[in-house]
Amino acid sequence: MILIGTKCRLEQAVTPELTAKAVGSGALPVFGTPFMAAMMENAALTALQSFLAEGQGSVGTHLDITHDAPTPVGMKVFAEAEITAVSENGKMVDFQVTAWDEKGPIGKGVHTRAIINSGKFLAKCNGKLNG
């Protein structure tokens, strides 16, 4: 059973490769929104992983976030995901996601992940190549 309130917190230092300028989402050398979003999703994935059976995985289906403050290269950033709800059929899991740097909050929002059978999911995906 998936436990509401389960959290995962991740951290990393901002490097030049993790900037908006490097990824093309902006022109400045500050922590890029795509990398903040990926950290939030990774925290959610990690929080959920221990509840999944062999052969199961999860995929992101919804992400609604704000990026509220810039972070310079060299500063640490943190992302946390907390499980807030599970659908009646147990296949959809909602998260509150937050991000901050060493000086304070930088982003927040909500994220939803679907629990899937990894083999079936990949077979369906790869089936797109055949027609």
Summary, kept brief:
The protein has 131 residues and is an alpha+beta fold. 24% of the residues lie in helices and 41% in strands.
Notes on the protein architecture:
The protein is of the alpha+beta class and 131 residues long. 24% of the residues lie in helices and 41% in strands. The protein is built from three helices and five strands, in the order βααββββα. The protein has helices spanning 20-23, 33-49, 118-127, and strands spanning 7-13, 56-67, 76-86, 92-101, 104-117. Strands 1-3-4-5-2 form a five-stranded antiparallel beta sheet. A hairpin with a 2-residue loop joins strand 4 and strand 5. The radius of gyration is 16 Å and the shape is globular. The N and C termini lie far apart (38 Å). The model has no long low-confidence stretch (mean pLDDT 97).
List the helices and strands and how they pair.
Blueprint: E1 7-13, H1 20-23, H2 33-49, E2 56-67, E3 76-86, E4 92-101, E5 104-117, H3 118-127
